Amino acid sequence: MRVFSQISLLTFSVVLSLAATTNLLAADKALSDRIGGLVRPYLDNEVVTGMTIGVLHKGETTLLGYGRLGADLSQKPDGDTIYEIGSVTKVFTGILLADEVIQGRVKLDEAAGELLPSGVKMPSHGNRAITLQDLSTHVSGLPRLPDNLIMTVPDNPYSTYTVKDLYAFLNSYKLSRDPGSKSEYSNLGQGLLGQLLAHEQNITYEELLRQRITTPLNMTSTTITLDKEQRLRLAPPHLADGQPASNWDIPTLAGAGAIQHSQRYVAICRSKSLPPIRQTWRSD
Question: What confidence category does residue 197 fall into, taking pLDDT thresholds of 50, 70 and 90?
């Protein structure tokens, strides 16, 4: 079993629910001790090698780093550490769908096949077509992974799967039930959703992410393709037994798990007024 970037899914969810930057330790030692006590079992039991936690408390924000970046590394992770966040990417894909709906570019109940290029057919069952909402909520009827995803590179299994492969799968696959009738977790469905939203605007998923989320929010360390400086800040992933693993490339199903992210952006966003993005997403 692979654990993304030292259980960065846990790290990311903690940061989103609490927040981030620098000052809590001196202000409230009891709270920092309590957080340390919660973290310690994860480190002592080698569930993770390290993690970054962001905290918002009494109007003050701070980032706390624990453990090490890797078993053979002494450096402690911090707010600038970039984590491979795996399936938390799906949150961003859902936001991109919501944004497209609000802009009037697509509808939740729109047949997903309408966004496919000519010559590619979306699987259906009976009279029920797969909608964009079905893909987003894991009720499309599509399997977890396409059966033509051949893992020729075990340490980087999605890296060789192409858009051509994806379209070939869709043209040949037969649904066994009506879309919407049953929930089944699907990396394929989420990856396809990201591909469709990007194709609708004739750009890549990464470009769509940059245009609609990361650039407006100044999330300069939330991306898919890392530059040289960002790679120096990337936390190495580990297997469940603590052994080092390899980072994954997910070019075609990017919307399912390709994003790499640093917690520092929370502090940046908190220090700026965000009316344009609030109006776009209607979050208030």
Answer: very high
For 4-18, write each residue's pLDDT tens digit. 444 443 444 343 333
In a domain, 98, yes or no: no
Element (H, E) at 189: helix 187-200
Q: State the DSSP code for 156.
A: S
* Full residue range of the structural domain in which residue 265 is found: 2-88+218-281
How far is 105 from 211, CA to CA, in rounded Å? 15
- The secondary structure element, H or E, covering residue 223 is none
Same domain, 130 and 168: yes
Q: Please name the amino acid found at residue 152.
A: T
Work out whether strand 238-239 and strand 124-125 pair parallel, antiparallel, or are unpaired: unpaired
Distance CA 175, CA 216 (A): 39
Is 50 exceeded by the pLDDT of residue 279?
A: no
